[in-house]
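Hey, can you fold this?
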Amino acid sequence: MLGAVTSPHIFGPERLGPVPVDRFTARHREALDAFKRTRGAELFGPFIPLLWSPELMVRIAALGEYLRERTVFPPHLSEVMILIAARHWTQQYEWSLHCPIAIESGVDPAIAGAIAAGTRPPRMSDEQATLYDFCTELVREQGVSDATYERALAAFGEQGIVEATAITGYYSMLAMVLNTARTPPEPGGPTLAPQPR
């Protein structure tokens, strides 16, 4: 289920595309320059619509840099959490970008495929299984049971609990921005089938 069925969220024209140059303010330019300095790249994905609120974009990008580069979780764990958020929101751009990154970082393709299908993945490590249960419960139930919390606490400590919650929340927020903007997936990247509601 890594296939190419388009989500209903992106039907219709893209919204909140790039800020036209003739509408750039000094703050837009500062935000764009700060992003290029920090990321070493042109604006992409959710940061294109976020630039409509330049101060917010800079602050969100800074949080993303921490969660991507300095969190306690290595990529083979953090990417599982990102995929869970992308699946929950049926976020095509996020999935098309992060599914290949997850696999490259060591996530078994069968795990990504099961998350895409909305089923519990096979062959997870104990750490991946703990995070899968924690993050899936968080997005589906809007909270975490005592048993799930205690497993995550034993595995990752309080900092890990907070950062797992933050990663799930951050990529959920980006998914909402991307779904609202109808940002298309990366060309040629994997996409998600709609979830049954």
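Oh, and this one too while you're at it.
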Amino acid sequence: MPSLQNKTVLIAGGAGDVGEGLARAFLAAGATVIVPSRSDEKLDALRDRLDAHDRLVSWTGDVSSEIGATDLRNWIADAVGPLDAVVASLGSWWQGPPLTEVPLDTWHRLLDMGLTAHFVLAKTFVPVLAGRSGASYTLINGAGGLHPVPNSGPISVSAAAQLMLKDVLAAENESVRINTLLLATPVITRARPDGPGDWLTADEAGTYAVHLASDAARDRHGETIVFESRDQLPVSAA
């Protein structure tokens, strides 16, 4: 795994199931990892599970709101220092009625969770990374961005739109490497420890995300990496 010693990484969603694997991988690579959450309990539990020391830095607040994201940006600048990378693992799974039966308030809530939150985070932190040598911004996405998933329509719509969000951000920001890591299989996590052998694990997602934040991926920009097999793990990350 590439070394990220002396690098500082923000993992938005790092207290979630997939986010835990991301945080574990970045800590193993030597980075200082900042994890925000609205829940102190989730942050305490994450710290206990990762047996983390002072390189795991927590912050309590809502990064999906402009006020919360700005507060976090200012706090990081004052309390931690310059950022080198951001990993955005926002949103969660949802299943419900067919798309034509989804209540409007549910539609708004799910698009806010899966798309608007990504926009707010990128709007706040891509400018922070601009000008930092080797800076990277990685969006974590799922298979719903490529294929329609019946009874999960708002998830597929927001995931597909998130891919275009990345494309526009990459076209407008050449000084920050902006990519999407699209997890094309269900992910084995602490909360879902069992699954077929071809399912990816949260830690493998973390390993690939570390690679994208490292100098080994310095030429990758504006890409959607469809991660569907552990055979795709770069040699430097395996």
